[in-house]
């Protein structure tokens, strides 16, 4: 499959190069040249298909012949090696739980799939060592560390802000060792991100190391997120009502993958972009004006994004036709008070415990269902509530149980290097 840059459509790339580079040379995001329509046979006997079969059919066109069938199937097997259950909460509301992966975050799927593809290309093309350099405010780092752990040819360097990630998140970043190095930056997330940007522009580093990033702009992290929607549909297809999905959104990679799945023929009627107070997309849907801003810190901090990078992909999917987009996508936003109240209300009503991100998704769905009849709604739970222990326990006024994987991880010893300046990062990368 060919990909083009959303800045200059004459700039083309194959899948391998798009995965290795992340961004096009003109700094545009890559977008597939064609959207594969699924044949009717894909939906025959859909109920009895395995998640691996479904995922292979969905993704194969976007990889093309660049990874042989057997290898691609192997990558998918490793990627989807856990459950994606839909749990019905009330008559018109279900939740799709995406937190059953190794770091209890939905980002596990994208990180594992990208690691598999990159590992394959390194081996096949003798690319030598590649360094994956990422800045994290929490969940990305853990998923990337876990997904790339022990992949041959890859070294991972993660920058995180000292004292600004939760204890569980820090353990996920710092206890693996081997090919994973955690650098604890004396600063905030923006400082980490700035250092990563400088390193990508630094020729001295480029001469010594081949660097790549692993954020959601990479097609190998973005595209496999389509799997969630197909696997959810398999569990919801007996519903008589139309289906609507509410997606807690930050950089809009996840929801954009859902919209792509719909474009390929998945019968989902409508999508809801659920935001915290960082709501540039909700405002765009009302005013047709896209006005990025600085991000504001909230309880659902993985969605504290002021300039969502995947938004341009959504516009491209709808050929920049505002009316078409408005028919398929609704936006809502909620503040921290509403988020905490929703966690409390849901727990009281059903006993179900939501994390702050899922709670924003639930609120978006609730608002939509109030205004629209004939739908069954599903919101996405993008992280396990235990990752946001303080917020969740304060809201429900009860202790929640810590899963066994986390309990054992909490006993592991933290290994990290502290750095203060870009010069220290550079010295580390050159050493
Ligand atoms: C990353 C993340 C999001 C936002 O996903 P996008 O694809 O960036 O919109 C939502 N919830 C959690 C828990 C996350 O880690």
CATH architecture of the domain at 83-103 and 222-402: 3-Layer(aba) Sandwich
Terminal-residue CA separation:
38 Å
Structural class: alpha/beta
CATH fold-level assignment of the domain at 83-103 and 222-402: Rossmann fold
The coarse silhouette is globular
The main β sheet shows up as: 6 strands, mixed
- Which CATH top level class of the domain at 83-103 and 222-402 fits? Alpha Beta
The fraction of residues in strands falls at 15-25%
Q: Tell me the strand order in the biggest sheet.
A: 4-5-13-10-11-12
Number of strands: 14
Kindly state the mean pLDDT as a whole number? 95
The amount of helix comes to 40-55%
How many DSSP H or I helices?
Answer: 19
**Unreliable residue runs:** none
Taking Cα atoms only, what radius of gyration do you get, to the nearest Å? 21 Å
Which ligands are bound?
pyridoxal-5'-phosphate
Cofactor: pyridoxal 5'-phosphate
Pfam families: PALP, Thr_synth_N
Domain Tryptophan synthase beta chain-like PALP: 97-365
GO molecular function, one term: pyridoxal phosphate binding
Compile the SSE list and pairings.
Elements: E1 3-5, E2 12-13, H1 15-21, E3 30-32, H2 51-63, H3 69-79, E4 86-90, E5 93-97, H4 107-124, E6 130-135, H5 139-148, E7 154-161, H6 167-174, E8 180-185, H7 189-201, H8 203-208, E9 210-212, H9 219-222, H10 226-236, E10 242-248, H11 253-263, E11 270-275, H12 280-287, H13 311-317, H14 322-328, E12 329-333, H15 336-350, H16 356-371, E13 375-381, H17 389-396, H18 404-411, E14 417-419, H19 422-430
Parallel strand pairs: 5-13, 6-7, 6-9, 7-8, 8-14, 10-11, 10-13, 11-12
Antiparallel strand pairs: 1-2, 1-3, 4-5
Bound molecules: pyridoxal-5'-phosphate (PLP).
């Amino acid at each position: 499959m060919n990909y083009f840059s959303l800045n200059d459509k004459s700039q083309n790339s194959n899948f391998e190069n798009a995965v290795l580079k992340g961004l096009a040379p003109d700094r545009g995001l890559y977008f597939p040249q064609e959207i594969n329509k699924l044949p009717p046979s894909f939906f025959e006997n859909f109920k009895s298909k395995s998640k691996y079969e479904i995922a292979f059919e969905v993704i194969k066109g976007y990889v093309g012949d660049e990874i042989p069938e057997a290898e691609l199937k192997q990558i998918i097997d490793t990627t989807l090696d856990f459950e994606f259950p839909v749990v019905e909460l009330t008559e018109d509301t279900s939740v799709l739980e995406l937190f059953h992966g190794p770091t209890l975050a939905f980002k596990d799927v994208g990180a594992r799939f990208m690691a598999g593809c990159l590992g394959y290309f390194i081996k096949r093309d003798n690319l030598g060592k590649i360094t994956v350099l990422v800045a994290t405010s929490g969940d990305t780092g853990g998923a990337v560390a876990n997904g790339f752990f022990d992949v041959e040819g890859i070294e991972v360097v993660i920058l995180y802000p000292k004292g600004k990630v939760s204890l569980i998140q820090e353990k996920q970043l710092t206890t693996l060792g081997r090919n994973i190095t955690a650098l604890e930056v004396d600063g905030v997330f923006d400082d980490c991100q700035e250092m990563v940007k400088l390193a990508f522009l630094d020729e001295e580093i480029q001469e010594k190391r081949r660097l790549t990033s692993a954020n959601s702009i990479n097609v190998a992290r973005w595209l496999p997120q389509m799997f969630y929607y197909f696997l959810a549909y398999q569990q919801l297809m007996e519903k008589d009502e139309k289906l609507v999905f509410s997606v807690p959104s930050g950089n809009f990679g996840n929801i954009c993958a859902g919209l792509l799945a719909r474009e390929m023929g998945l019968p989902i009627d409508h999508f809801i972009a659920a935001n915290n107070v960082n709501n540039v997309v909700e405002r765009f849907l009302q005013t047709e004006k896209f006005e990025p801003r600085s991000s504001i810190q909230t309880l659902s901090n993985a969605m504290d994004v002021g300039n969502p990078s995947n938004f341009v992909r959504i516009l491209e999917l709808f050929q920049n036709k505002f009316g078409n987009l408005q028919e398929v996508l609704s936006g809502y936003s909620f503040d921290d008070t509403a988020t905490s109240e929703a966690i409390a209300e849901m727990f009281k009503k059903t006993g179900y415990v939501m994390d702050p991100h899922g709670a924003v998704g639930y609120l978006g769905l609730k608002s939509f269902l109030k205004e629209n009849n004939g739908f069954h709604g599903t919101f996405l739970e993008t992280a396990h509530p235990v990752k946001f222990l303080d917020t969740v326990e304060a809201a429900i006024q009860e202790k929640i149980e810590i899963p066994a994987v986390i309990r054992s991880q909490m006993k592991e010893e933290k290994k990290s290097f502290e750095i203060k300046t870009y010069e220290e990062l550079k010295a580390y990368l050159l050493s």
